[in-house]
Amino acid sequence: MKLAVSPGHGEKTPHGMWTALSCLLAPLVVLAWILRDAIASLGSGLWGPAEPWLDGDFVGNFWCQWRTARLFHDGREWMASLAWPEGGGDLLLAFPNRLDAWLAAPFFDPDNLSFCWNLQAVFHLGMALLAVVLAARLAGASWAASAGASALFTLSPTILHELAGGRMATFIVWPGLLAMGSWAAALRSPLPRSATFLGAVTGALLALQAWGYPYHALVVGVILVLAGLTGAGSARISWRPALAMFSLCLLLAGPYLWKLQSLSTFLAVLEPPSGYTALPLAGVLGLASVPERFRLYAPVLPALLVALSWKGSRPWALAALGGLFLALGPVLKWNLGQGGVDSPLAWLWQHLPVLSRMHHPVRAAPLALGAACIALALFLHRVTVGRPFATFLPLVPWVGTWLAAPAIRMVTSWSIADAPPGIAAARWLSHNADGAVVDVLGGEQLGGLALQPWHRRPLLEGAQGYESSPDRPWTPLQKELVWQVRLLAHGDGADVTTMHDFVGAGFSHALVVKGRSPGAGEVSDSTELLERICGPPVFQDGQAFVYRLP
């Protein structure tokens, strides 16, 4: 193997294949040990929010993956049969992330959901850790320093924030981390053609990150620009790599981003199902007063301050600090739920609709940690080369493993049933319904989406009820039917004539499921009204009620 030239001092250090493999696998082994209980439950309980079937993000991601898998396997476009009878609008309107669904499509199985969902999480997390080590290595650090610095990423549970919130789509950060590595290699390359090629590779990875989640791509772009402008690499870097990067990124992701831009004004007004989340200042310091998934590994900030002291690692340290600044959001807070002060980002968030849609600035934290790992790896490499007594230094960032492990386990070790309430009723409908289904209590919990993968009937429920959509307003029929569903949910306003309207539109059954409504009384009121109009339920299991429309 060729000798790797370390940046800044010209010394050469031999690296064997086994050294590289060991340093790549070491962070994975450590994380597997930390998450051993969760990995043992890979096929027996969902990883994610404590109440997944009441979480709009989880259900939305789950339904999006099922819909994409159906399209992959048998070519059926299920979006067209969501908002029956008029057909649904563009899926981007509700769930503007596709990469995770495409990757999951070949093997996604709703009847084996725990294994499918959790295996995706293992894959994406493992890819992120590998990408961090590779990025640091491509930046010029040794394998040992790269693996040691990856502790900043591995032991900070912020990447699992998205998994704990049920958002597999925004759990994917490895394309952006790989983009940092290819960009670091482009900045260091002495050959113009090689630098331009690596810039193009960076652009392709940046486009892939945009398909996963556009905000992540924006954060990565800011980090790459900061690293380039502050001198990460040759002082005579050409403009060609940057041009290749941005050109290929726009070519590959431009149409998709343009489509999202047309929806940005509308999307900006929607409240996020899980609220607004940003990284608090106490979380940057790793203090226990902050919930686990908002907490960085405590040595992150000291490591960045140390990396700032050497010019070789300073550009990536500054880029990491820039990424963390984005993660703090437009309002700086010490803890969650407290008042704060406006940051310089507040003006941008206020005047750019695209940014105002980004309800969760904390999503920038994992990418900022990737840049922090590169900075620390370069510094560790600098201080260990030629100093045998300092060879233990790359192990120092891992000293706090036993302190950080409980916080990571808290984020991922859920044992939640992988079937939604009403699954038996959905299976009954799949064999007995001869028309569309009215999901009475779907509402904000997206209950109809949760059960459609099992009953596979066209349905009407509130998830797609975006009356303010500029490019697809409701039809009069949709408005009337959805209004009647809302009345049914509250147990009033509906009569036999209303049921005839539903039947005329193609519905055959109404479904009411307990455990999806904010108030238990709503279930009781709805079932009493439906029994007066439709007669006794044709299916009932104590959890769900199915009525045949007259």
General form:
elongated
User: Helical segment tally?
Assistant: 24
Strand line-up of the largest beta sheet: 6-5-7-9-8
Number of strands: 9
Q: Helix- and strand-based class?
A: mainly alpha
Biggest sheet record = 5 strands, mixed
Oligomer: single chain
The low-pLDDT segments are: 1-13
Determine the N-to-C terminus distance.
Answer: 77 Å
Helix percentage: 40-55%
Radius of gyration: 26 Å
DSSP strand content: 5-15%
Q: What does the average pLDDT come to?
A: 83
How many structural domains? 2
Could you describe the 3D structure shown?
The protein is mainly α and 550 residues long. It folds into two domains: 4-412, no CATH class; 423-548, no CATH class. It has 24 helices and nine strands. It has helices spanning 17-34, 36-40, 56-74, 99-104, 113-138, 143-149, 151-154, 161-164, 174-188, 192-212, 214-229, 240-267, 281-284, 300-307, 314-328, 345-351, 353-356, 365-384, 401-412, 423-432, 447-455, 476-489, 496-504, 520-534; strands at residues 4-5, 12-13, 331-332, 341-342, 436-439, 459-460, 507-513, 539-540, 544-548. The chain has a five-stranded mixed sheet, sandwiched between helices. It has a two-stranded antiparallel ribbon with strand order 1-2. Strand 1 and strand 2 form a beta hairpin. Helix 1 (17-34) crosses helix 5 (113-138). The chain is elongated, with a radius of gyration of 26 Å. It starts with a strand and ends with a strand.
How does the SSE layout of this entry go?
Blueprint: E1 4-5, E2 12-13, H1 17-34, H2 36-40, H3 56-74, H4 99-104, H5 113-138, H6 143-149, H7 151-154, H8 161-164, H9 174-188, H10 192-212, H11 214-229, H12 240-267, H13 281-284, H14 300-307, H15 314-328, E3 331-332, E4 341-342, H16 345-351, H17 353-356, H18 365-384, H19 401-412, H20 423-432, E5 436-439, H21 447-455, E6 459-460, H22 476-489, H23 496-504, E7 507-513, H24 520-534, E8 539-540, E9 544-548
Parallel strand pairs: 5-6, 5-7
Antiparallel strand pairs: 1-2, 3-4, 7-9, 8-9
Helix pairs in contact: 1-5, 1-6, 3-21, 5-6, 5-9, 5-18, 6-18, 9-10, 9-11, 10-11, 10-12, 11-15, 14-18, 15-18, 20-21
